[in-house]
Amino acid sequence: MKNNQMNGYIIWGLLINSILLGSKQFIKMPEGIYCFGMGVGIALVLFGIYSMNHDTTKIKNFKRNLIKKFMKSI
Q1: Helices in the chain by DSSP H: which ranges?
Q2: CA-to-CA distance for 66 and 46, rounded, in angstroms?
Q3: Residue 12: which residues within 8 A CB-CB, separation 6 or more?
Q4: Quick check: helix, strand or coil at residue 2?
Q5: What is the C-alpha to C-alpha distance for residues 12 and 9, in angstroms, rounded to an integer?
Q6: Does residue 34 belong to any structural domain of this protein?
Q7: pLDDT tens digit string along 1-25?
Q8: 1 lies in some domain
Q9: pLDDT tens per residue, range 28-56
Q10: Rounded Cα–Cα distance for residues 69 and 59 (Å)
Q11: Alpha-carbon distance 1 to 48, whole Å?
Q12: Number of independent structural domains in the chain
């Protein structure tokens, strides 16, 4: 295990989930938006847990190259 600190993925996932859970109580929002946001938050938390124990440089390089190709096509 590299370290026991929370990384950015876990922090952002928990932040998104907590904002959505809190706002659901006071603001009426469509169920699709709520479920999409919760799914994104959960996915970020799970990826953060995975990246604590595994090397994710290949995934980061793939995302970076994908964004570069997309920006060149525009």
Answers
A1: 8-26, 31-53, 57-73
A2: 22
A3: 41, 44
A4: coil
A5: 5
A6: yes
A7: 456 678 899 999 999 999 999 998 8
A8: no
A9: 989 999 999 999 999 999 999 998 888 88
A10: 15
A11: 13
A12: 1
Q: CA angle, corner 49, sides to 45 and 51, nearest 5?
A: 115
User: Hey, is 48 helix, strand or coil?
Assistant: helix
Q: Report residue 72 as tokens.
A: 């060149």
Q: Is residue 60 part of a domain?
A: yes
Residue with tokens 């993925």: 9
Range of the domain at 54: 8-73
Please indicate, yes or no, whether the overall pTM of this predicted structure exceeds 0.85: no
In a domain, 16, yes or no: yes
Per the listing, tokens 């440089």 go with 57
Q: Which amino acid is at 34?
A: Y
